[in-house]
Specification:
about 270 residues, mainly beta, Coagulation Factor XIII, Chain A, domain 1, Immunoglobulin-like, 2 domains, 7-stranded mixed sheet, 2 helices, 22 strands
């Protein structure tokens, strides 16, 4: 729950790069092979993830090596955005092969989950495909920023209000804004000393989730209010969090599978939650 145009689904730049010779994955035809890998500052369970419009975390790298190629052959990045029904299409600048072991790197900024391939085309104006890599996927998470956090404790009760601002591509706005929110709470009490932080937070079914307020075509705000009993004199540790489950198969935002949100408890450590 850790770029804008979904039609293009990316912004791309290319350059030559020195890269280790060991192939990560390869497609081969006519004696030419091409390896490919995707990387970004965020990985979750082996998945490469970028965060929509989050500077420094919204870009991924597609890199690899062409082996056995001929000078003048062209390396082209291809992209296929979610739901992966359209064909792979060229997606940016070209890299020209200069020798039998040519490295490449493309920088991509998808705004929805996108599969990428690299193909090597014939030299001297011949357009026959010499090799094509396997496909790799870059997933896109919506940006969630926690705004105001208000705590009012009039013993024996504490009332907390936490607001979240969610930035998501415009075409996925309606899906994301309509999804359910889950609130989590960690409360530890002690009569003698301040409790240590909790390892987990538990689902709070009594939390009140306010109505979604649209901020712009790609941003909305929601506030959760949580009330807990802390007693009259006890010292306490209190922490809250809110989240939405990913809906990757519906709108291509988030990751496939479950990643904690909606379960009976979540970790109190920083990490991906969806």
């Amino acid at each position: 729950m850790i770029g804008r145009r979904t039609s293009a689904a990316l912004a791309v730049a290319a350059c030559l790069l020195a890269w280790p010779a060991a192939a990560i994955a390869a497609g081969r035809a006519s004696g030419v092979s091409v390896s490919i890998r995707a990387s970004s500052p965020i990985t979750v369970g082996g998945d490469t993830v970028v965060v929509y419009q989050y500077a420094g975390h919204d870009t991924a790298k597609i890199s690899g090596q062409v082996t056995g190629g001929s000078a003048g052959q062209r390396v082209t990045l291809l992209a296929q955005p979610f739901p992966y029904v359209s064909p792979f299409l060229p997606a940016g600048s070209l890299v020209t092969v200069a020798g039998p072991a040519q490295t490449y790197l493309f920088s991509v900024r998808p705004v929805i989950a996108t599969r990428y391939q690299v193909q090597v085309a014939g030299a001297d104006g011949q357009h026959a495909i010499a090799a094509r890599s396997r496909a790799v996927t870059v997933y896109v998470g919506k940006q969630v920023t926690f705004g105001s956090y208000h705590k009012s404790c009039a013993r024996p009760l504490c009332k907390l209000a936490i607001s979240a601002y969610v930035t998501t591509p415009p075409l996925s706005y309606r899906t994301e804004a309509a999804k359910r929110w889950y609130a989590y709470l960690a409360l530890k009490l002690s009569r003698h000393r301040k409790p240590r932080p909790a390892d987990t937070l538990s689902l709070d079914r009594k939390a009140v989730i306010g109505r979604v307020r649209q901020v712009s075509e790609n941003e909305f705000e929601v506030t959760a209010t949580i009330t807990v009993k802390i007693g009259h004199t006890d010292r306490y540790y209190l922490n809250v969090n809110i989240c939405q489950r990913d809906s990757y198969l519906t709108d291509g935002i988030g990751l496939p599978g479950r990643h904690g949100c909606g379960g009976p408890s979540i970790s109190n450590k920083p990490g991906y939650l969806g």
